[in-house]
Specification:
It is a single chain. By secondary structure, the protein is an alpha/beta fold. The longest helix is centred in the middle third of the chain and has 19 residues. Helix 2 packs across helix 3 and helix 16 packs across helix 21. About 5% of the residues have low confidence.
Length: about 625
């Protein structure tokens, strides 16, 4: 049996070099002006390029664009398909996402990408953009994460402290145009930056640049002042970021870029909402703070200077193509901190923690939780929902709770969909965009910019995510959270949360109060009194829709620990089943299937033994 050879055509010199070291062979594609070339001549040229490939065996990794135009790329893929060669497309043309002059090319590009076996994309946000614009939903993909910047020279890092800021602006998109701060800006580019305290060093060779940066004593700036340019950084990854980090200096980046989470979690630098804020942070930085950043950066820089991101990328993409037991994506991290999300759907900044951050906040502070979604919004704006009729008293209580976030006893959680929605799938985004368009006045009224909210999705960690590879770890964190606790579950008659799975298996004990499945608020005082009786020194898990929010609030201020946990059980069941669409469960209530039709409740002796009270419908 013939083994596959891997052929690549990648314009980036470092990546191509690393690929060769890993056994990949170069495809003979060079850039030329073929705008007037006949189709016959083009086909002959491409036949020559693919002649060295083994029919039906070899794998091709090719960077797009190739530099030879769309007609060349389409014909190349056509010929590779004839050879039954699987093509991995390495996308390096993010300007089509934020440059209005390229938007007319988007449809034809998507058609080309849909012919790939696997895509390499720079960010999850880019992959979601492609999905929203016609990319096949079953397309396998790998996220690049970071450029490597290999250096053929020994660097001797200096650890001196300075507040100087370095700026290169060698990327594809424009940068800052003025600088009027007390801190010095050292400019490594022939740029038209104007203002005071600008030192123009000019263009340097790679060796000279690394020597200058590695002397340390400052921070590297990545910044773009135009909205379209900054939006590009939400999709793309920055060459300059890798240059700074490889040289061992911490960085300053705008919040919302694709690298923000990696930078913050690895302590590689600062993320700020504005240049004013960034400069203020640097100006107030102590030497000990700077040295702490430097320590982390110089450890991290080993990965970039030795090509480990590229090596991992190539291994991931080949395994993704060949193995049958892998998910449809590979990425090191997909968690984001949703800080100050600027949204077209609300006039206010929305400060929402990420899913994992929310869980950690709840765990360490033992704070109660009330989570708000579209159902609560419907009730607060005068509508009934399938399992709760409109009740004026309930609507007033919900409105009161949502407008008092940041309380020491109760964390109010909002849906994390106001901006940077790339982590969620197309169906989820479309649903919430319709909602936000309709209820933008409501959100403008209730959101308080100065306050911080938890993520309502911290208990929906599977179905709506683009990348589900993080879900297993997240569910394990949830099970660890429940472990060794005495739990009181307050749920509807059809919920049976944890029955048939191991979600609460490690808890010290589980007790249940069974409540009405519909219009639970009509029994509110009875439910509250029963929880008071059985909930002392227990973690109280509430699964009663909008009524759970009011219970969580009242119990929190009485000293109980109560979490509005919602549909975590359905999410866990879907995760175990491996389904990618919301699927009705036969033996208990299912999230989003709210009428509880055709449920065949099974007799479960353990479940029955856990019931301490049943409140009539």
């Amino acid at each position: 049996m013939e083994h596959p050879g891997i052929h690549c055509r990648i314009g980036n010199g470092w990546i191509a070099k690393i690929a060769h070291e890993m056994g990949c062979r170069e495809m003979g594609i060079f850039c030329y002006n073929g705008s007037n070339e006949s189709i016959e001549s083009l086909k002959i040229r491409i036949d020559g390029i693919v002649a060295g490939l083994s029919w039906g065996v070899d794998i091709v990794i090719c960077q797009f664009p190739t530099g030879n135009g769309f007609r060349f790329e389409w014909e190349l893929v056509d010929r590779l398909k004839v050879y039954q060669i699987q093509v991995i497309m390495f996308i390096q043309e993010s300007e089509i996402f934020f440059d209005k002059y390229h938007q007319d090319r988007l449809e034809e590009k998507i058609k080309l990408y849909n012919r790939a076996a696997v895509l390499i994309v720079p960010s999850v946000a880019m992959r979601q953009f492609l999905l929203d614009n016609g990319l096949r939903e079953d397309m396998k993909y790998v996220v690049q994460e970071m450029w490597d910047y290999t250096v053929g020279m020994n660097l001797f890092f200096d650890s001196k402290f300075s507040r100087d800021i370095y700026y290169m602006n060698r990327g594809k998109i424009g940068g800052i145009s003025d600088w009027n701060y007390t801190l010095q800006l050292k400019l490594f580019a022939n740029s038209a930056v104007q203002g005071r305290n600008v030192q123009r060093i000019g263009e340097l060779s790679q060796e000279e640049l690394f020597f200058e940066l590695s002397k340390g004593g400052g921070l590297g700036l990545i910044w773009y002042q135009e909205d379209e340019q900054q939006r590009g950084l939400e999709y793309d990854i920055s060459y300059d970021l890798s240059r700074y980090l490889a040289a061992g200096i911490p960085v300053i980046v705008p919040k919302g870029i694709s690298h923000q989470d990696m930078i913050e979690r690895n302590h590689l630098g600062l993320a700020a909402d504005s240049l004013d804020e960034a400069v203020e942070q640097v100006d107030s930085m102590e030497e000990s703070d700077y040295q702490e950043y430097v320590r982390y950066v110089r450890r991290f820089s080993t990965l970039i200077r030795n090509g480990y991101f590229t090596k991992k990328l190539l291994v991931d993409v080949i395994q993704m193509l060949i193995r049958q037991d892998m998910a449809d994506c590979a990425i090191s991290t997909l968690t984001y901190k949703g800080i100050k999300q600027f949204s077209a759907y609300t006039k206010n900044n929305v400060n929402i923690m990420g899913m994992e951050e929310t869980l950690e906040y709840v765990r360490t502070r033992k704070i109660s939780v009330a989570r708000f979604g579209d159902g609560e919004v419907f009730l607060m704006t005068g509508r009934s929902i399938s399992y709760q009729d409109y009740d004026e008293g309930l609507a007033k209580r919900l409105k009161q709770i949502i407008t008092m976030p940041d309380n020491k006893k109760l964390l109010v959680c909002l849906p994390d969909i106001f901006e940077r929605k790339g982590r969620y799938n197309g169906a989820c985004i479309a649903c919430w965009e319709r909602h936000l368009e309709k209820y933008r006045d409501f959100w403008d009224e209730v959101i308080i910019s100065e306050k911080c909210y938890g993520s309502a999705f911290f208990l929906r960690p599977y179905m709506d995510l683009v990348d589900k590879s993080i879900s297993g770890r997240y569910f394990q964190n949830m099970k660890d959270f429940f472990a060794n606790k005495s739990i009181l579950i307050v749920e509807g008659a059809y919920s049976q949360s944890g029955v048939g799975n191991d979600l609460f298996q490690e808890a010290n004990s589980v007790e249940r109060i069974i409540c009405p499945s519909r219009n639970a608020y009509s029994k509110y005082e009875m439910i509250l009194d029963t929880i008071r009786e059985y909930g002392i020194n227990k973690l109280i898990l509430l699964m009663l829709g909008p009524t759970a929010k009011v219970l969580a609030s009242d119990l929190a201020f009485e000293g109980y620990w109560a979490i509005d946990i919602g549909h975590i059980d359905s999410e866990y069941e879907w995760y175990k089943m491996g389904v990618t669409r919301k699927t009705k469960l036969k033996n208990k209530h299912t999230a989003e299937f709210n009428f509880d039709n055709d449920i065949e409740l099974k007799k479960d002796d353990i479940y029955i033994s856990e019931i301490v009270a049943t409140l009539s419908e």
